[in-house]
């Protein structure tokens, strides 16, 4: 069949055998090389956690902050540094820095091996460093990336004006933290999460005489 005959063929007339055969031969090749839409990337496992992220939950609760600020202001009377065990994002560190004496150093210690968002240790550390960048570069804060137990073994500075404990909230680890603060002669020992959610913290703080001050879940021996 000529090209003109093909054009003039009635719309429903059957194709000759040749064109039919060619169409069937090339069908699988069209399917094979046809561009398929890219599959949508799977949502990162951290997406759900960050979708409901509330920065006020990454620090002491608002109703407890006045006690922390008061303890830091009282620590101005002592020459030693303020030591925070457990940095997380650095929001509590910033609260401490805003209330300390101008020439007082804040040392914040964290290994960055846990966070509630499931991000990597490196990303977690970098996030905290970004939050604390100004305070670190101006010498107000020293960000120590270290296991707290290693820090306890290697610390050789003066007695701290204040130790604020906000790392592992079980009985054994909180007891280690308080015992170290006592050994180095901390003027004030305080911490976070004295609450029913962390019965180990309540138990060990009570063993050391209980909180002389308590607001929200921030306590001071």
Structure characterization notes:
With 221 residues, the protein is an alpha/beta fold. It is built from ten helices and seven strands. It has helices at 3-7, 17-33, 47-51, 65-74, 91-99, 121-131, 133-137, 148-154, 171-183, 199-207; strands at residues 82-85, 106-110, 141-145, 162-165, 189-191, 213-215, 218-220. The protein has a seven-stranded mixed beta sheet, with helices on both faces. Strand 6 and strand 7 (218-220) form a beta hairpin. Helix 9 runs parallel beside helix 10 (199-207). The N and C termini lie far apart (101 Å).
N-end to C-end Cα span: 101 Å
What is the alpha-carbon Rg in Å? 32 Å
Describe the biggest sheet? 7 strands, mixed
Q: Give the strand line-up of the largest sheet.
A: 3-2-1-4-5-7-6
Question: What would the average pLDDT be, to the nearest integer?
Answer: 86
Helical content stands at: 40-55%
Q: Tell how many strands the DSSP assignment holds.
A: 7
Helix and strand run: HHHHEHEHHEHEHEHEE
């Amino acid at each position: 069949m000529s090209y003109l005959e093909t054009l003039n063929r009635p719309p429903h007339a059957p194709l000759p055998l040749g064109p039919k055969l060619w169409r069937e031969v090339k069908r699988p090749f069209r399917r094979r090389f046809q561009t398929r839409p890219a599959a949508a990337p799977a949502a990162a496992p951290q997406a759900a956690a960050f979708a409901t992220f509330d920065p006020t939950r990454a620090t002491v609760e608002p109703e407890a902050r006045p006690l922390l600020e008061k303890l830091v202001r009282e620590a101005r009377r002592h020459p030693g540094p303020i030591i925070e065990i457990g940095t997380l994002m650095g929001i509590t560190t910033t609260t401490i820095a805003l209330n300390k004496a101008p020439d007082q150093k804040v040392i914040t210690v964290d290994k960055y091996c846990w966070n509630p968002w499931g991000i990597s240790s490196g990303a977690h550390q970098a996030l905290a460093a970004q939050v604390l960048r100004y305070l670190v570069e101006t010498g107000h804060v020293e960000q120590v990336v270290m296991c707290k137990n290693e820090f306890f073994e290697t610390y050789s500075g003066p007695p701290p004006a204040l130790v604020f404990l906000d790392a592992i909230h079980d009985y054994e680890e909180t007891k280690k933290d308080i015992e170290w603060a006592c050994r180095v002669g901390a003027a004030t020992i305080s911490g976070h999460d004295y609450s029913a959610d962390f019965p180990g913290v309540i138990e060990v703080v009570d063993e050391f005489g209980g909180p002389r001050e308590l607001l929200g879940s921030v306590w001071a021996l």
